[in-house]
Structures
1.
Amino acid sequence: MTSKITSGPYSKYKFRGHVWKHKGHGGWFFVTLPRSLSLKIRKDHGLSEEGWGRLKATAKLGKTSWATAIWYDSKVQSYLLPLKASVRRFEGIESKAIVSLELKFEMADRQ
């Protein structure tokens, strides 16, 4: 289930997702955003994307908030959210966990 809350200069999206570990070098952990949510975010904030589909955001998992970015993965047609090791450790999150997250984006000036 996802939801969008727009408040002032920000919009927030809440969702649940599975944590997974990338098999490549470094073993980064990610959550793939639901495709429907990715479409909403791209519609609302796509003009703010930087190179490689990077979109700056503030993420919140449990009691922990951090500045981050999500990346659009055209193979799965969804954004990927990397989970910092320090956040995973503090919140006790491991691979294959189902987590509740919040993403906050600044509203782009659309003049």
2.
Amino acid sequence: MIRDGIRVMLESQSNTYSFSITEADSGEDAVKKILRHTFDIILIDYQLPKMTGAETVEKIRLYQPNAKILALSNYDEVTYINNMLSAGVKGYILKNVEPTQLLTAIKTILNDKPYYSNEVAVKLLENEKTKPKVNDTFGLTKRELTVLKMIAQEMNNEEIAKI
């Protein structure tokens, strides 16, 4: 039903933009169609029959490394978003977006720029804030860090005790 709505919305823009729409019923079907044709942009969901959207994107990237792929999904959890980004999508939006935002996302990705809906961008930023920083000492004191470095340098207890 959502796919039909997206199709109708995109077809309503056919006066402004010249394009054709091809649909796939599964990740496998999508990969087969991509082997036969080159598409300007690919819209893909995370949840697909037979393989996930991320697995499908990885396979698409094997055959068309420069494909412009937009994830369009109901999944707003960071794990799913990151899986799709790691697989190689150029943007991620939620299915509840307004038609104008979907068109903006498509245009942006066609111009080789990433695009994330506001909700997705907020989730990614919140997740980034909670990641430990590279310089994070994990609550260790200076002495504990020094000892840890000496252990990493394969120093024995006697050598460490002298310092």
3.
Amino acid sequence: ECVPAKTPYLHGPLNNDGLHFRHADGTRPFLISTRLSCQFGDRALWPDVIRFLKEYRINRVLFMMVGVHGQSKDLFGQGGADLWSYNLAKFQAIDAFIDALRKADILAAPYFYYFNDKFQRKLTPEQDEAFLRYGMARIGAYANVMPVLANEVEQKFSERKQQYDPRDHVWANRFGKLLKELAVFGVPVTVHNPMETFAAKNPGFFTLLLDWPFPWTDLMLRQMQVGALGSAPRIADDVPEPTDPTWNARAFARHNDLLIKLRRFNVPIINEEPGYEMEGTRSWNGQTSTTVRATFWTAAMAGAYTMWGNLATYETSDPLPYMRRSRAPFDLRTLVQVMDRVPYWEMEPHNELVNSKPVEVGGDEYRRNYLLAKPGRHYLIYSRDGGTIETRVEAGEYELECILLNDAPAAHPVPRPGGRLVPKDGKVSFFLSEGMDWVAMLRRIE
């Protein structure tokens, strides 16, 4: 039972509700995530960063508790020489960062382990336990936290150019279970995988991507770089993850399909690393604002979530200049504003109800139209290239609205009324200008 909140950001604990999230007071945040690294920077800069996040409806910030690559040792005593003690000033900064986000009604996802610079591999099991106990004693009572055991958890023992080490998941489940026990106020906990690897086969990257062997988690965080999905000749155990991206129809169709397949684990799904918008040429850093938009919409049509990161992600001082130069925040806000208008938590992927408008890549066909629906009530269609849209619907009269996602950035999307439609032979049909990406909303008129 909730008592009336004294401030608008007090919603009570966040829990997973099927494949989505719900606060104790009944509010449902549609998660739009970004990754930052400014928790140890000038606190005077935080208010402007938070105002930007609020303006564009970004409501979840993930960050590595140790900082960026090369900073891991600084979270521990004596500059990393004493793994049994911790840098108090660093932890106080983490506390303050989480609390600043809390007061802005923004979720915080602190990652305990960041094995990228290999320093935290040095901890013994006893030191791992002490580290988790200390960290959760400090942050576990913040109602906005979503603690994460580790980034790319397979990095605990595995190397990127070798096979996966089976000890990784043994370690993750041992200390993940402890993390869950330490979440005494019921905050949701999880872990992030798979680690990038460009050599592992049988099992390979895609083997791990299609599984979720962490029963203690409340949600799943995946590394599913969309550009790599476009380059892979097959999604198979013996196919390594490609390093070079291809942003084609196959990439986004596979993204949607893989997220749908992961729904069988019945926990919320976040593609935590779909690739960063960093003007790079690799799968991990080659996103553009256009591909970011398609990434978010193909995730949403799977009933899942994803995240946006750009050059701001690794900025340890002021991330705002990088965030402001991207169009992506405008598109993310549009996505949330659309989701505000539909009961997305009651809707499920129903691609079979919309014409796919396929294109051929590598001898196979891949769809360009996607559908999330509560059949008979609400139909949400994402079309990457427009054209004629045909959707099978139940009997009734439907109101149609369309939004051109390529439109110039605006504070609010401009719906283009499509009038009222009555199905013929169980289908409604309408046309969207070709060569552009659209979202269309069909609502049955009661």
4.
Amino acid sequence: MTKPVKDNQMALQREFQHFMLKEIYEQPESIGRGVAQYVASLGSSAPSFHALPEANCFEEIQILACGTSLHAALVGQFVLEQVAQIPTRVRSASEFLAAPLPVTRQTLLIVVSQSGETADVLAAMRLANQQSSSGLAGFKVFAITNNSHSAIAQQADYERSVGAGVENSVAATKTFTAQLVLFYGLALAWGRQRDRIPDEQWVTWQSRMAALPSQVDQVLQQDDSIAAIARSLKHTNHIILLGTGINYPIALEGALKLKETTYTHAEGYAAGEFLHGSIALLDHTIPTIALCPTPPFRSDPSLENPPSEGGDQMLKVTQRIRRNGSDVIAIGGSEAAIALPLCDQLLSPFLTVIPLQLLAYHLAIARNIEVDRPRNITKSLNSF
């Protein structure tokens, strides 16, 4: 049995048998630190990060990452485009090596790696720098890591640590949400600099992000219920996860967590796209996890849900899945197996990802898998 892990700094006085669970429970604290550093501290007018590019220094953003960091980048893309209105593209670092995206002097290249040592990201950075030194571009590189002393951080023009603290488990959890906080902070800062966020909306953003730690804690309080769902899936070989809009990357991240920690074949899909062929996979043995956060706020234009992100599409898809005889496990929504606090859609990834992390953890435990050290995967330990 794994020796219990203790942390006297945690608000919850409990023992954790594994680093992964401990790090999941540290997220209210790490999110709160990030919000204080990257959102609350920005001030009220034309906020800027120290020693980072101003919004008028670039016209587009490209983001390179791998694995969990790639999914954080996809959420970041959504926020950068919807809030700051900056055209943004996301690419797997390994695919960038195969076919580099065209860049210009007006491009800001963001590279994301929790360890700061990811080989594909380093190689992609070097390829981009070769283009720049050859006179093909001249863009700047901004690194987001959890280790300011890492190779990626040292080789970038700009860098920021997400400040999540040491993450020992191979499966990334708290570094994922810490990356999200930084992306939201960047989108808000650059959005303000570009006059995309009026004063009243800025105040609303700050207050709603300040509420995230307590809302995440509310989700964590459902741990026992999530563990029971995990035990019911012990003999399940395939799981489908569905999301829409900003929660599509969370469906991808949940599928990755299930694959890497429980060895379950899991696939994440955009809910509407799932109907275009992939629904043929379903039968009564394959459950579907549907991410259905319900937003209560519709009066604030900066936080209002895009029309394509409403719950109607997910409702139609899940109804069809049920008619086909497959089980649906809803996270959020009116028929939730796992309830979520009410929040705006643009902030919902902080809440929808937590049940998926806990589900992956408890399913791995039910299957007697060494959750902190899954097979075939290695990880660089990092500091903050």
